[in-house]
Design a protein that fits this description.
The protein is built from twelve helices and 16 strands. With 335 residues, it is α+β, with helices and mostly antiparallel strands. The strands form three sheets. Strands 5, 6, 7, 8, 9, 10, 13, 14, 15 and 16 form a ten-stranded antiparallel beta sheet that branches. The radius of gyration is 20 Å and the shape is elongated. The two termini are 38 Å apart.
Length: 335
């Protein structure tokens, strides 16, 4: 690329000042990388209480950003990805915040910002899936939001709603244990109806329903084993324990079966022969679920109030992510 072409390139950094330890240091790193690449001086845009990232990302795209970096929690990544969906502009996820869930599922560097800053300028661009959730409120009002990891309704959303924000800032994802402790004593399953695109209507009783674009969580937990961020499929998990032993089955499924045994061929054979109905897995390209009474809803770890119905679908390849040169999704997802 000649010099005249290079100077038209410009990066933008969308940063959440609450989640990033030093906005000044990160901004300086992006400016230095821009200078080395021969790009124009980058845009530095901070999120606010009223704008978690959508407006900042839209401003970056309107300004003709060639590449956008995002630094913040999972909510910031979700908001920026929502605005960048379908734009074709690469999004570089700089590790920060509590979970780094999308970066974790893509097996991107989590302990250093340097590789991801460089990826925005000299890395590869890969198209990955992004989810879209349409919520129908009790009064019939509808709204759509993107999610990059998973949406959920039921107990998981209630746990997030009951998580202390201060504990979350101090302890990270471990703070959700507090939310669980507050929610589980009052937890009760709810009756729901669901229907995958092109299939019949089904009913079920569950504590939670999770709609996953990908399924890896912190501490090596595979919530939805086999979920891939580039397969065009929506993976659904129905959490359906019965009694105390049922809840023990949920934890065994998540901690042992999914996160330990499935990592080896022999372990996968053992899991296949084990009967554990506490979690039921389904998949399709789109699904709609509804309940008689509005149920708490969450998207990528942020609460979104209550909804009577939720429709989730996958926009295959709808988000372009910047990754270090040579990084492959074939090695970035769990087998």
């Amino acid at each position: 690329m000649d010099e005249r072409a290079k100077v038209t390139d410009r990066a933008a950094l969308v940063v959440n000042p609450v989640k990033v330890r030093s906005v000044a240091a990160l901004s300086a790193s992006v400016r230095a990388a821009s200078a080395r690449a021969g790009w124009a001086d980058p845009l530095i845009l901070e999120t606010t209480v009223t704008d978690p990232g959508q407006a900042a990302a839209a401003e970056a795209l309107a300004a003709g950003a060639t590449s956008v970096l995002v630094a913040g929690g999972d909510g910031t990544v979700r908001a920026v990805a929502e605005a960048m969906r379908g734009s074709g502009v690469p999004l570089a996820i700089v590790p920060s915040g509590t979970g780094n869930l999308l970066a974790r599922n893509l097996r991107l560097p989590l302990d250093r910002v340097g590789p991801m800053v460089e990826a925005a300028f000299s890395g590869d661009a890969l198209a990955v899936d992004i989810g879209v959730a349409t919520l129908t409120r009790a009064d019939g009002a509808r709204e759509s939001h993107a999610f990059v990891v998973m949406a959920g309704m039921g107990l998981d959303a209630a746990m997030i709603a009951h998580t202390n924000p201060r504990m979350k800032r101090q302890l990270g994802w471990v703070a959700y244990v507090d939310g669980a402790a507050r929610s589980l004593p009052r937890a009760a399953p709810f009756r729901m109806a669901y229907q995958f695109d092109g299939h019949g209507l089904h009913s079920a009783k569950a504590y939670s329903v999770l709609f996953a674009n990908c399924g890896a969580l912190p501490a090596g937990i595979d919530l939805v084993p086999g979920a891939r961020v580039d397969d065009g499929l929506l993976d659904v998990a129905l959490i359906q324990p019965t009694g105390l032993f049922g809840w023990l089955g949920v934890w065994r499924k998540l901690w042992w079966d999914n996160s330990v045994l499935r990592r080896t061929r022999l372990g996968r054979r053992v899991v296949a022969r084990t009967r554990n109905q506490s979690i039921r897995y389904l998949s399709g390209t789109g699904v709609e679920a509804g309940a008689p009474e509005p149920v708490p809803v969450e998207l990528d770890g942020d609460e979104f109030g209550r909804a009577a119905r939720i429709r989730c679908e996958i926009d295959r390849g709808g988000l372009v992510v910047a990754v270090p040169a040579g990084h492959s999704l074939a090695t970035a997802t769990r087998s």
